[in-house]
């Protein structure tokens, strides 16, 4: 069963103007956010995925891509005019000023798009799936916060297997994220993903029933 802080679903006062219940979902790298999100989607729940939104705001012809091209030059683009993400990562990786400029450009665009998608959602509640929900102070947009949780050793093993990355790279990513303790402190509901996929799905169903009052 899903671990929760409260028995009843008590709504916070999120900083969005939508009456719809917004459930934030987060977790560290390798925790199983995508598996949980997919299960909510299979139940007919609208998903606002921050990673997808981040890609959307820099698509061809978008304000984000136009501004990035003006700032970094056309060398930041691929032959088809789309963003060369690898080149952009290289430009900002060890340059704090450029990284700050990029964040100041993209974060408001991402937030605006997510709020619009929340407003457009039609399901009983919607899931706001954000890897850096806690780090980005986006919990303020949510009525409830779900943290998908597992031991850090399991995060490391899963992420290495999934991404084919080295232990050093995954550990570096984990170090840049909120700690497990910090995420759990922000949680209203916790999905334990230290066991099987069936166990995760069972917890999602329990939370779905609670959120819909069924």
Protein architecture, described:
The protein has 214 residues and is an alpha/beta fold. It is built from nine helices and six strands; from the N terminus they run ββαβααααββαααβα. Strands 1-6-5-2-4-3 form a six-stranded mixed sheet, with helices on both faces. α1 (33-42) crosses α9 (197-212) and α6 packs across α7 (167-176).
Structural class: alpha/beta
The major pleated sheet works out as: 6 strands, mixed
Distance between the termini: 16 Å
The coarse overall form would be globular
Beta-strand residue fraction = 5-15%
Give the helix level as a range of percent.
Answer: 40-55%
What is the subunit arrangement here? single chain
Task: Round the mean pLDDT to the nearest integer and report it.
Answer: 91
Radius of gyration: 18 Å
Secondary-structure element order, N to C = EEHEHHHHEEHHHEH
Count of helical regions: 9
Low-confidence region ranges = 1-11
Number of strands: 6
**Widest β-sheet, arrangement of strands:** 1-6-5-2-4-3
Strand and helix layout:
Elements lengths: L2 E2 L16 E6 L6 H10 L3 E4 H7 L6 H10 L12 H9 L2 H25 L4 E5 L14 E6 L2 H12 L3 H10 L3 H6 L3 E4 L4 H16 L2
Parallel strand pairs: 2-4, 2-5, 3-4, 5-6
Antiparallel strand pairs: 1-6
Describe the structure concisely for a colleague.
The chain is α/β, with parallel strands linked by helices.
List keywords for this structure.
single chain, 214 residues, alpha/beta, 6-stranded mixed β-sheet, 9 helices, 6 strands
């Amino acid at each position: 069963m899903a671990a929760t802080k409260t028995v009843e679903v008590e709504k916070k006062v999120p900083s969005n103007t939508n009456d719809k219940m917004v459930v934030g979902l987060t977790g560290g790298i390798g925790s199983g956010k995508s598996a949980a999100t997919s299960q909510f989607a299979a139940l007919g729940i609208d998903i606002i995925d921050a990673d997808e939104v981040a890609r959307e705001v820099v698509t061809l012809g978008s304000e984000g891509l136009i501004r990035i091209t003006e700032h970094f030059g056309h060398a930041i683009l691929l032959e088809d005019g789309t963003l060369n993400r690898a080149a952009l990562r290289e430009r900002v990786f060890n340059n704090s000023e450029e990284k700050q400029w990029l964040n100041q450009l993209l974060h408001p665009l991402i937030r605006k798009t997510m709020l619009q998608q929340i407003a457009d959602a039609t399901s009983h509640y919607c899931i706001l799936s954000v890897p850096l929900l806690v780090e980005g102070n986006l919990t303020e947009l949510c009525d409830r916060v779900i943290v998908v949780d597992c031991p850090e050793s399991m995060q490391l093993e899963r992420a290495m297997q999934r991404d084919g990355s080295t232990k050093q790279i995954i550990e570096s990513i984990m170090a840049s994220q909120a700690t497990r303790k910090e995420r759990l402190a922000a949680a209203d509901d916790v999905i334990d993903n230290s066991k099987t996929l069936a166990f995760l799905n069972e917890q999602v169903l329990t939370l779905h029933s609670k959120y819909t009052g069924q």
